[in-house]
Design brief:
432 residues, FAD/NAD(P)-binding domain, 2 domains, nine-stranded mixed beta sheet, six-stranded mixed beta sheet, 27% strand
Length: 432
């Protein structure tokens, strides 16, 4: 074993990378942590308006790191999941079907005895506080904590020897060990060695993370859902703004799921998933999009009055079969890119970061930790991958009764209290 301080490279200063770097800085007081990112340190990230939903577990992680800004977040007090008609169960008589109404699953924070199920806030409202806290920690311990903003990582290479001295001394160990280390090659050909390199660089389905780092292809599980996500923001009529306050709505349609996430100002973030081959959104103007959305969501949402310009993203699954390669490990979107149907990608990544640092705190043997990481994170990771993949694929099924089956599932979850509560806990904290 090597008694010298543990040297960790964190590649990617997004929410997951920053959270891991901060947690490692606090939980591993003897470790040296170097944070890499291609963007400049003075680039304004606070104004990034992308809407993200955090689970309660993720909120608690940010609170623990001192990077939670409650004044910028809209708590989620209730989640309502339903299906656009026709979704009535075909075996029920018409009079009974009409009386029961459309199946709807309602999960409420008050029923689970928690202050909130999660929260909605912008990407900037997550990243900017994390970076601020990290920079403050770095200023207090500049010899142990280092930032390499504006330094894109060109490649990662596994090295056989443990003698670690970087070309310019950035984050480099000085001890001698018998285990392998990992080489981080940055711009200008600077090579640095670390005991552990954590790849937390974000990615999307069309541009998977790790590709630019020269990481070898390990035959990840991939699937193109042939769906497009339209993302933006909607506002409600003044009289209806309060209706959706604290309530997140997800609506299953024949084209795919559509979700409205409540925002602090009374508006809502929109994630509208449709089939790519028969995209019903692309050719519409804003007024037509508002009309269609009002026909999709039920009256409980309130009347949508306006819509922002929408951005679109192709949807698919990228899931690494194994997280580790020598002394490097992938977490967050670098490990798996999920369909947004359950809004769990970032939450899974934050749990990856938290559990990795906790494992290192329990056992300083990096090789042993990485060997155990696969099965320790496996149940949570693969359960979420399987659930989102199943739901995403279900919208492509053309089998008769597929919609009715979804409606039956929604009705059954609502009726089975213990099962609904177990689902709520899974969404809040992941699989434990």
């Amino acid at each position: 074993m090597n008694d010298s301080p543990l040297n960790i490279a964190v590649i990617g200063a997004g929410p997951v990378g920053l959270a891991l770097a901060l947690h490692a800085a606090r939980t591993l007081p003897d470790a040296n942590v170097t944070l890499f990112d291609a963007r400049a340190a003075n680039k304004d990230v606070a104004g990034d308006p992308r809407t993200l939903a955090l689970s309660l577990g993720s909120v608690q992680i940010l609170q623990r790191l001192g990077a939670w800004r409650a004044e910028l977040a809209q708590p989620i007090l209730e989640v309502r999941v339903s299906q656009q008609p026709p979704s009535a169960l075909p075996f029920l008589p018409d009079f009974l079907s009409a009386r029961l109404g459309e199946p709807e699953l309602r999960i409420r924070a008050i029923d689970e005895a928690v202050p909130m199920l999660g929260a909605v806030l912008s990407y900037g409202a997550i990243v900017a506080p994390l970076q601020q806290v990290w920079m403050a920690a770095e200023a207090e311990e500049p010899k142990r904590l280092r930032s390499r903003f504006g330094a894109p990582v060109a490649a990662l290479k596994n090295l056989r020897d443990g003698d670690a001295v970087g070309a310019r001394g950035f984050g480099s160990g000085t001890g001698t060990g018998t285990s392998t280390s990992t080489g981080v090659e940055v711009d200008a050909g600077i090579a640095e060695r670390f005991d552990l390199a954590v790849v937390a660089e974000g990615g999307v389905f069309a541009d998977p993370a790790g590709k630019a780092l020269g990481l070898k292809d390990r035959s990840p599980i991939t699937h193109d859902y042939q769906q497009t996500a339209w993302v933006g923001k909607v506002t409600f009529a003044a009289s209806d703004t309060a209706r959706a306050n604290g309530v997140a709505f997800e609506r299953f349609t024949r084209h795919g799921p559509a979700a409205l996430l409540p925002l602090k100002d009374g508006s809502a973030g929109l994630v509208w998933c449709v089939t790519s081959a028969d995209d019903p959104v692309a050719e519409l103007d804003d007024a037509q999009r508002v009309t269609v959305l009002n026909s999709i969501f039920h009256a409980a949402v309130g009347r949508i009055e306006s819509i922002s310009p929408l951005k679109r993203f192709p949807l698919g699954l990228n899931a690494e079969r194994t997280l580790t390669d020598g002394r490097s490990v992938r977490i967050g979107n670098a490990a798996q890119t999920l369909h947004p149907v359950a809004g769990q990608g970032l939450n899974l990544g934050l749990r990856d970061a938290f559990e990795l640092v906790q494992a290192l705190a329990r056992n300083p043997d990096v090789n042993a930790v990485l060997r155990q990481l696969e099965w320790q994170r496996g149940p949570d990771r693969w359960a979420m991958i399987a659930a989102t993949d199943f739901l995403a694929r279900s919208f492509t099924w053309k089998l008769p009764g597929a919609g009715a089956a979804r409606g039956l599932g929604i009705a059954a979850l609502q009726a089975l209290g213990p099962v609904k509560s177990a689902l709520a806990k899974q969404m809040m904290y992941g699989r434990r």
